Amino acid sequence: MKIIKKAANLLLRLALALIIAGIILFVSGYSPLKAYKAMIWGAIGNWNGIALSLVQATPLIFTGLAVAFANNCGVFNIGAEGQLYLGAMAAGVIGAYLPPLPHYLHLLLALLGGALFGGLWAAIAAWLKVKANANEVIMTIMLNSIGILFCSYLANYTFKASGPVAQTPEIKSTAVLSRLSTGTQLSSAIFLGLALIVLVWFVLYRTKFGYEIRIVGANPRAAATAGINVAQKITAALFISGTLAGLGGAGQVLGLHGRFIDGFSPGYGFDGIAVAILGGNSPIGVLFSALLFGLMRAGGMVLDRTTNIPVDFVLIIQAVIIVMVAAPELFKALKGGVKDVRTVVKQ
Amino acid sequence: MEALEALRMNKIVKSFGSLKALDQVDLTVAKGEIHCLLGENGAGKTTLMKILYGIHQQDEGEIYLNAKKVKISSPKEAITQGISMVFQHFMLIPNLSVMENIILGQEETKMGILADKESRNKVANLSEKLGLKVRLDMLVEDIPVGEKQRVEIIKALYRGAEIIILDEPTAVLTPQEVSELFKVLKTLKEDGKTIIIITHKLKETLAVADKVTVLRNGKNQGSITTDKATPEILAQMMVGRNVMLEVVKGKVEKGPVIFETKGLNLKDKLKNINLKIHAGEIVGIAGVEGNGQTELLETLIGLCSPTSGSIIFDQKDITKDSVEERLDQGLGFIPEDRNDRGLVNNFKLWQNAILGYQKRYEKKGLLDFAAITKASETIVKNYQVKVLGIDSKSSSLSGGNAQKLLVGRVFYHNPRVLIIAHPTRGVDVGAIEYLHKEILSMRSQGKAILLVSADLDEIRQLSDRIAVIYEGAITIEGDGGDFTEDELGLYMAGGLRPESKVVKA
User: Fold this and answer.
1) Beta carbons of B366 and A219 less than 8 Å apart
2) Cβ of B323 under 8 Å from any chain A Cβ?
């Protein structure tokens, strides 16, 4: 009953968003119906559309999962974007520069490298929070800029492939995450994402570690009273959150682009926040909301390609949908997040 | 005094969502009467009074003031009708003076300029006539709780209140302040004011009221004049069955000292705390809230480390041990505020039933659900937690049941030392009886128990030894029978110094 009510509520908000965006389109002299038809057809109308939607959803599964994991421990990780970049760079460098290795070993090392660097990048924020009482929201935001620009530097100078583009050399075939079908960009990174959904669910709900993480997230003072080391759990949660985002970046490099390209992410890390919150911070919820966001991105891309509606409208439609769908939850979560930060800091 | 009717509330019904908070409640209060509205938490007392004060509106029913039907839709209207309410948490502005607080919103002006003198005389008259001692020029943040309450009462009178509602007025007072308050209330009564007191304390009801109306589960259980009432009768009306008000404390042979603090200091919050607790002994810490109890509890459990001094558990120094290590060694802790440090409210009952002991339900990193289910069900059964099932959220538990869960969780996991804070705060009479019995049964099992409570009756009934904490120091310690209630009250208020009474070892 609750789920049906929630779903109905979501659909209602989605419809409202489409109406508002439709009015904006109409007032500007474009046909909303034509636009929506193009979007929906583009996202789910044929196998190519579905594949495009899944390609767009893939990195969001990782970043959504990353933000959700930290949220379960009461820490707001806004830095998934930076962690995604670090992970992508690490995977790109390992994939391109390591001497010849057996296929799966090389792939595994590249993925592990991506996870590790994403995790360590997030752990810096955790370390500052625990040691210096720094606010993790501000820390992770700042680390975003540093991380993204650092990767840009590496792609422009240290690891630059020859040619005019700021990118690293192509990864070796032994580090490639294989494509699922020819003619689409869909790679097996999506299976890695699905496996992580299951794994994170298992860790959060079936292990003592996950139990303690969630207790810290729900009531840090009760957690401390129950002998749980709150600082340690927060550090662990942020590290794990970073590894998930880092794996997302690695997946893009190893499965889609074949190399690190400067500016490859159109904000997957930031969308991950909306994905996590819309998914109620549960792994299953993240899966569904990442798919929804993937559909929207794919629909927007097709709209841009097939109609004369300016590309800015795609962004407007997406923004209205995100605001209408995610905003009520977003505000709630932000309020809760701020409160949690204060109580944790007090400890 | 002829019973002129000051107030009649007739068949009041009020629902919040699906919850019926008040069901056809009648209340009649005579003019110049002190009337107690008695009931357990959640019985609907405060809701009924908030309707009278205009904060809530009734769904059905009428209100008559001086036999005239009235409609009160806001506190402002209530005040113009001569009704004032003094809340449990005072509504004073701390950084304004007493005088400014009293006249706030009702300032006398002369051509737009504050007529300070007039207001001042008016307030001074009120305060003198009724024996309400307040210092008008002190800042509210600098005066003690009892005085703040008097300021609230003067504020009500200044606004022309004829009916004054007091919500749990004694909750924050020492026994001395309580008797002072009661004197004031009796003066007001002689002055013709009508007073309604919301309370769940039987003794005080009998001490001050003329008449009592008892509510239970939003229903009126009848009214009774205090000359015909006894604590037993009132308790039965409140709970709906016979209640043992005084627990029977058996004799327990004291064992060796198991838990000890030596010269514990915490900044300026705790001063040289020396406590010894034997096996099979309950040591009660009496004190007005905010005198270092919280800091003492947090230091003992390991949430903060003392500036100096040591904590000895079973001859082992545990001062440097973490909370986890202390729990592992058999320290059981029931925190002051169950919603703050005790339970995780939007989590399921079983998740709360193992909190602090999750290590014992771990198998290779995984939670052992079979063991957890068994333990949770045993706790629910043995400690009479009324709940639909162990998958229910613990936020669905009533105060008493939540406390039973908390107590059950700690007692079930076999501690050797128990640190128990306010075990019956916000808990109904029936559950209090039960919780006291359980604590005493822990005592007979030879546990060493430290009991911190602001409830003097609880301390006196349960403790073998009593120590009084005042401004972070233990000012006196002695056997439970050594103190009268009045003496304890004086110590709690810092009135008597330790040298005035020989401290027994």
Assistant:
1) no
2) yes
CB contact set of B290 (below 8 Å; sequence gap of 6+): none
Pair B225, B210: CB distance under 8 Å = yes
Would you state the pLDDT for residue B456? 85
Per-residue confidence (pLDDT) for residue A329, from 0 to 100: 59
* Cα–Cα distances in angstroms (integers) from residue B144 to residues B99, B139, B425, in the given order: 16, 11, 22
Q: Do B327 and A227 count as a contact with CB atoms less than 8 A apart?
A: yes
User: Residues B58, B10: contact at Cβ < 8 Å?
Assistant: no
For chain A, the average pLDDT equals 90
Spatial separation of the C-alpha atoms in residues B329 and A93, rounded to whole Å? 50
Is B303 within 8 Å of A219 when comparing Cβ atoms?
A: no
DSSP state, residue B501: S
Strand pairing of B19-30 and B68-70? unpaired
Q: What is the pLDDT of residue A343?
A: 39
Inter-chain contact B362–A218, Cβ cutoff 8 Å? no
Q: What's the pLDDT at A338?
A: 45
All domains of chain A, ordered by start, with CATH? Answer: 32-346 (1.10.3470)
Is the Cβ of B359 closer than 8 Å to some Cβ of chain A?
yes
Note the pLDDT of residue B127: 87
* Separation CA B446–CA B474 (nearest Å): 25
Interface membership of B304 toward A (CB under 8 Å): no
Question: ∠ at Cα A312 (A306, A314), nearest 5°?
Answer: 55
Q: Residue type at B276?
A: K
CB contact under 8 A, A208 and B365: yes
Burial of B483 (0-12, 13-18, 19+ CB in 10 A): buried
Give the SS3 label for residue A92.
helix
A202 Cβ contact partners less than 8 Å away, ≥ 6 residues apart: A210
Using CA coordinates, name the residue in chain B closest to A214. B347
Give SS3 for B274: strand
pLDDT at A325 exceeding the cut of 80 = no
A88-119 in b/e form (b: 16+ CB < 10 A) is bbbbbbbbbebeebeeeebbebbbbbbbbbbb
Does residue A345 have a pLDDT over 60? Answer: no
| Nearest residue to A62 (alpha-carbon basis) of A141, A120, A106, A118 | A118
Give the whole-angstrom CA distance, residue A234 versus residue B39.
44
pLDDT of residue A339: 44
Cβ separation A208–B346 shorter than 8 A:
no
Of the candidates B43, B397, B407, the one whose C-alpha atom is nearest the C-alpha of residue B219 is B43
Would you call B343 and A228 a contact, using CB atoms and an 8 Å cutoff?
no
Token readout for B27 is 């209340």
CA pair distance B333, B342, nearest whole angstrom:
9
State the pLDDT at residue B501.
Answer: 46
Please determine, for residue A280, whether its predicted confidence score (pLDDT) is greater than 50.
Answer: yes
Nearest chain B residue to A220 by CA distance is B341
A208 to B335: CB separation less than 8 angstroms, yes or no: no
Tokens of B309: 């001094």
Contacts of A218 in chain B (CB under 8 A): 344, 346-347
Residues in chain B, pLDDT under 50? 1, 500-505
The answer, for B335 touching chain A at a CB cutoff of 8 Å, is yes
A221: which chain B residues are within 8 Å (Cβ-Cβ)? 340-341
d(CA B327, nearest CA chain A) in Å: 7
Mind listing the pLDDT tens digit for each residue in A1-30? 567 877 787 788 888 888 998 999 999 999
pLDDT of res. A341: 40
Q: Which domains does chain B have, with CATH numbers?
A: 5-239 (3.40.50.300), 257-341+416-500 (3.40.50.300)
- Which residue does chain A place closest to B346, by CA atoms? A218
Residue B377 makes CB contacts below 8 A (sequence gap 6+) with B390
